[in-house]
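User: For a teaching handout, I'd like to show students what a predicted protein-ligand complex looks like in token form. I'll give you the sequence and the SMILES for magnesium ion. Please answer with just the structure.
Assistant: Understood, here is the input followed by the structure.
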Amino acid sequence: MTVLEAIEVTKQYNMGEVTVEALQRVSFVVSKGEFVAVMGPSGSGKSTLLHLLGGLDEPSSGEIALAGHTITHLSDDEVTVVRRRKVGFIFQFYNLVPTLTAAENVGLPLLIDGQRIEKYREKIDNLLKMVGLGDRLDHKPDQMSGGQQQRVAIARAFVNDPEIVLADEPTGNLDSKSGTAILELLRKSAEDLGQTIVMVTHDPRAASYADRVVFLKDGRIVQTLSIESKSGASDDIRNIMRVMRELEL
Ligand SMILES: Nc1ncnc2c1ncn2[C@@H]1O[C@H](COP(=O)(O)OP(=O)(O)O)[C@@H](O)[C@H]1O
Ligand SMILES: [Mg+2]
């Protein structure tokens, strides 16, 4: 079952005299429970693609279908509801609210959706335990390291049981042990819970936890690679690095 689809998607940014072609006729289908990694050089359109897939921005042309809704035809309010209910985002900058504790930050999407937070206390605690922050529930962002804040943001992305998780460099600032724990969490959420994951990464080892890797260059998909191990095997990492070299990424 397809849960995420981009059809001939183009995105241009108009910067005064100059037009930047961030994405050029990108077509892309992701099935339920699939874990896809997106790689490519800086400026190749990875974050733009993630924003469009999540309905945070609109394509210049083409269509995006998200969890069975062709969002290109929905009103802003309708897109917001689909996004809130179906999508978890992990951004490069964690966007935590500085005055809230870790647990409150994780619960924020539920609060915004008008739900009673008390009902979810146990779930929030469990999510923070899963990202290794069971002893940091009441810490505010400025009392945590960058990596810990990032893990709060990861827990938050899962709080509404999203069908789709969109992650921009989720392991970028983590040491290798925490990074591996997060990659295993993403792998498990896809395999056991049928959640669909799209993860942007620079790291071949992170990408080797996905089912396949999509390579972007200059706003186009230039290659797709299937991953055998889906768990960081050195053969897969070598294959990813070979494709990166071949494509001069
Ligand atoms: N809001 C924006 N306004 C203007 N140009 C942008 C904007 N966002 C991204 N771009 C441009 O679009 C291209 C793709 O950017 P981005 O999607 O952020 O790439 P990546 O995430 O792969 O580094 C780049 O040339 C970037 O400068
Ligand atoms: Mg980016």
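For the handout, you might add this sentence: The helical segments are 46-53, 76-86, 102-112, 121-130, 146-157, 176-193, 204-207, 234-246.
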